[in-house]
Amino acid sequence: MKPLIFATLLGLLAFQVPAYAQGCPAGTYPWSGNGIFTCLPDPSYNQQQSTQSSPPLPPGRWESRWGAIATDGNHGALGVTTNMSSRSSAEKEAIKDCKAKGGTQCVLDIAYDNSCAAMVVGDNGYSIRTGANNDEAIRNATNACSADNRSCRTYYTNCTQAVLVR
To answer: What is the pLDDT of residue 111?
Structure first.
């Protein structure tokens, strides 16, 4: 009789299904098949988490950023500034930078916003132009320089980009 009870208990234990529903970690679900019991990843879990944990971003606005170039040709001084919040501050800082580099009669050559500027120097002078990117600014300045000069080469280039302010 004891062997029959033992065999019955052993048989019941062999076919017992573990309670994975409560034992599976977050992001998984219970699965069983072919005698295997496991927890599988729940593909919708990450989507639910991201929508629940990420509050909507507050609306923002784009703010221009300015750059400027000033020169003093008699003293060979170049003053530059970039990423300024206003045109007037960019212009003032470029002239200030030019004077700090030895210029005495610094003149504003260009102020630009949300774009790129390039200074190309040739045998008989220089040209400063803007463009949507560095390559375009350099190309525009080189074309202008080549009309009056030989041996034009890029001397300075920089870009400013608008920033998202929240």
So the answer is: 98
Q: Which of 55, 99, 92, 56 is nearest to 74 (CA)?
A: 99
Task: Give yes or no: residues 33 and 68 share one domain.
Answer: no
Burial 21-47 (b: 16+ CB within 10 A, else e): eeebeeeeebeeeeeeeeeeeeeeeee
Residue 8 lies in a domain: no
pLDDT digits (tens, 9 = 90+) for 65-122: 999 999 999 999 999 999 999 999 999 999 999 999 999 999 999 999 999 999 999 9
What 8-state DSSP symbol labels residue 121? E
**130, 112 in Cβ contact below 8 A?**
yes
Full residue range of the structural domain in which residue 28 is found: 18-48
User: CB-based contacts of 62: which residues, under 8 Å, 6+ apart?
Assistant: 162, 163, 164, 165
> What three-state secondary structure class fits 63?
strand
Distance between the two ends of the chain, CA-based, in angstroms?
80
- Whole-number CA gyration radius for the chain: 35
- Asked if residue 150 and residue 90 are part of one domain, the reply reads yes
